Amino acid sequence: MEGKVQSLKAVIRDGWALCPKCWGKLCRVPPGAKARGVLLWCKRDKEVELSTQ
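and the corresponding structure tokens:
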């Protein structure tokens, strides 16, 4: 099975980007920050995508 693996979407809560599976903190996200398609790395769940709107 080839192709791009669907990455998880980070959850932003209390100024932190969190992994949606293990709820580990990935990075700080300042108020009003904008990001689209930024890939973060979770030790447990691999790639997590950071997108804000």
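(Above: one complete record from the training split.) The mean pLDDT is 82.
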